[in-house]
Amino acid sequence: MSKCILNSVRGVDLVFRWGGDEMMVVLPETTREGARTTAERVRKRIHDMRKEVHPQLDISLGIALYPEHGLNEDDLIRVADLALYIAKKGGGKIHVGAEEYALDQKSAKVTFEPIVAIQPIVDVRSGEPIGHEALSRDPNRKASILDLFKRYELIGKLNELKCICFQTQIKMAQKADLKSVFINVDFKVLSTIEPPPKPDHLNIILEISELEALHDVESRLDIANRWRKWGYKFAIDDFGAGFISLPFIARLIPEYIKIDRSTILQAVSTPQFREFLSGMVVALKSYARDGIIVEGIETEKELEVTKEVGIHLVQGFLLGKPYEIS
After folding, report:
1. In this predicted model, what pLDDT tens digit does every residue of 160-205 receive, in sequence order?
2. CA distance 195 to 19
3. How far apart are CA 154 and CA 161, in angstroms?
4. How confident is the model at residue 143 (pLDDT cuts 50, 70, 90)?
5. Other C-beta atoms within 10 Å of 53: how many?
6. Please, are residues 182 and 121 in contact by the beta-carbon 8 Å criterion?
7. What is the rounded CA–CA span in Å between residue 64 and residue 13?
8. How far apart are CA 203 and CA 183, in angstroms?
9. HSE of 57, CA atoms in CB hemisphere, 13 A
């Protein structure tokens, strides 16, 4: 491998082992394009070699540029190491810098602020929305939010990203003069930040996934009660995906329970399950203070079954697609 790298660089470039299986290359007087070209040349030579020697051999490269990514050796090595980690875990194999992962909104060169879209939750009896769910989107419009979460998870900044999404959604809901906003959040975020003062005119419902009801119940109830003291409400999200949250629901008594789309699809296809769900809805109404919501309704048949089992608060493309607010 060392020979492949040496044969891929110029005579003035420095190549040395940094530690373990990591190599360091210093490219004097090189542009971003030049550094990337060199990296691609190294990868090509390694690929050519592995065909003959070791089919499992591969290489990832992280690039830091002076002075863009640092003015001294320590800063450049730190950024190069982070870029290498992103290249290795993210699948790109070559990555330059890490500025797009900067999340400090006060000091980052480019302010990171996710786009916020909202989707109405409609009371089908009146046809009027009772609130909107806030959804975050990539500010660069290059990735889905799940892909964005995955990338930040790789570098250990997922919770930081989620906190920014949460705070931005509250700010944008207030700016859009919404009356009620539903925001997906998890207990790690709620335990990380202090509850911001809730605007008097805005109801904020925190959607907690049913899966979170599995662990640390006492701790999570304490966190929920702390946020409730500041006027925040709660919804159990994705209910029915596993029917595992009943004990937690009984103690939390959320304002809303959101029925997972898969549950309604099963009720559409199976009359016996539809009858079971009708009975379940009757029981759940005692533990959802403000109502039960069905998510993901896309067809008239799904809406018909939703009404049949006794649910009138509905969210889905049939009632309204998400749209961005600014």
Report:
1. 999 999 999 999 999 999 999 999 999 999 999 999 999 999 999 9
2. 45
3. 12
4. confident
5. 9
6. yes
7. 15
8. 11
9. 17
Among 110, 256, 81, 89, which residue's Cα sits nearest to residue 158?
89
What is the three-state SS of the chain?
A: CHHHHHCCCCCCCEEEEEECCEEEEECCCCCHHHHHHHHHHHHHHHHHHHHHCCCCCCCCEEECCCCCCCCCHHHHHHHHHHHHHHHHHHCCCEEECCHHHCCCCCCCCCCCCCEEEEEEEEECCCCEEEEEEEEEECCCCCCCHHHHHHHHHHCCCHHHHHHHHHHHHHHHHHHCCCCEEEEECCHHHHHHCCCCCCCCCCEEEEEEEHHHHHCCHHHHHHHHHHHHHCCCEEEEEEECCCCCCHHHHHHHCCCEEEECHHHHHHHHHCHHHHHHHHHHHHHHCCCCCCEEEECCCCCHHHHHHHHHCCCCEEECCCCCCCEEEC
Residue for token digits 């009620």? 180
Q: What is the mean pLDDT of residues 284-301?
A: 95
Domains annotated on the chain, with CATH: 2-100 (3.30.70.270), 115-325 (3.20.20.450)
| Banded pLDDT at 222 (limits 50, 70, 90) | very high
Structure-token match 């018909």, residue found: 304
Look up residue 209 and give its two tokens. Answer: 């996934």
Which residue's structure tokens are 């709620």? 190
Q: Is 318 within 8 Å of 120 (Cβ atoms)?
A: no
Q: What pTM was computed for the model? A: 0.76
Most confident stretch, 27-31, 44-48, 194-198, 298-302: 298-302
